[in-house]
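Extended Data, record M10 family metallopeptidase C-terminal domain-containing protein
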Amino acid sequence: MVVILKITNSQQPSYNPSAGLQRAGSSDPTLRSADPHIRRNFAKPIFTVDQVAQQLTRENVKWADRNGDGVTAISFSFNKLTRGDREFNTTQKNQARLSMQSWADVANVSFEERTGRGEGRLAFSNNEGPAVAFGQYPGQDGKVFINPHYGTNTSPALHNHGRYTLTHEIGHTLGLAHPADYDASNSTSPSYARSAVYAQDTRGHTVMSYFDAHEGGQNHKENYSAAPLMGDIAAAQRLYGANYRTRNSDTTYGFNSNSGRDYYQLNNPNDTALFCVWDGGGNDTLDCSKYRQNQTINLNPESYSDVGGLRGNVSIAKGVTLENAIGGSGHDVIIGNHADNMLKGGAGADWLRGGGGADTFVYDNVSDSTLERPDQIMDFVSGTDKIDISVLLKNAGITALTFVKRLSGEPGQAVLHYNRNTNESRLAIDLTGNGRFDFFLKSRGPINTPDIVSNVPIMWRYS
């Protein structure tokens, strides 16, 4: 069977950064749902991740693990497959290797460049056919044809359509179908309204879709994913099993990444984040620290975050636990999960929710939470959670923290207040001795001095 990729053009909606932040009737943006932007356009049902995986693998085809070692070994080459074909250029070859690696990271498949046949076989070539590209399902010849005259097909790169096309077609060669029964050979051009059978049939949820992310309420500003997204990861794992060998030690995604993958690496505030995290274990971090926009960062599996000015552009795959999140300089919303999280909002007035586990809320600089722009911790549990201000005090040159009723102009004086009627706490610190609160933090739930990590002596002076 031949599977063909065709692109539909649609206009991006305007971006409202407050949209989808909270549940109806709630003023707490940390209570948002895992996929808050999805909408029931045209009365389409919303699928679970497992249902999406079943839909993408409905053809029930895959390469067999013939030697039973738990990994399906697929060989590949770059050849002229038919008369008139053109060999891939160097950029195409390198980018195809990256796309194959992104699939091998999430599922128990491997790719080896050689002419002989493995347990599966792929062959790539440029072909001047009528389609943008097409790839064959397992059990056929494993051919992937790319039309060299279309867009960026001969110059694939991170987040452009050429790289996305390679990842899409390789998905077909592994056994993934389009989310519904459409392709470029249809007499009527496919559209989301007419062709999609469920709400998440968009390129914000799967690279196998034809339809723009905005159809699902997301906004990727015409960027394309270079690697499998949430639905694709679940589908590939349904066919071949999950690859827990991938990044099974401490890994950082985003800024300061050590992932070794270009789509997980951010270097400057203008870089685009567009990825779904698959991680095999360790103590892991989602670092969004250099972005200046207001962001929502959700550490829960099967959730979508709004990062770096986009909407629904960073997600976490089913079964993945990330322990830590770092916000940027905007007013961020950070949502923890069931694990022991380390949450760092950075500058701006941030809303933080630790979720289950023993969570630590970290403050390094005065600008992280001020009287004018205080952070709010929405679910602090005294005796379980911690507030770490050790770096904050060190940076301010504070050698002792003294809790007082009122300030008297000494650096390092702090006031801790709890209102039983509202269940709200305030932690305020004078770091300069000017008699003003330089650091100011609000919390739902009581904060007691043993909950504060300071790395300096703590004293009380209430006389």
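Summary. The longest helix spans residues 90-106.
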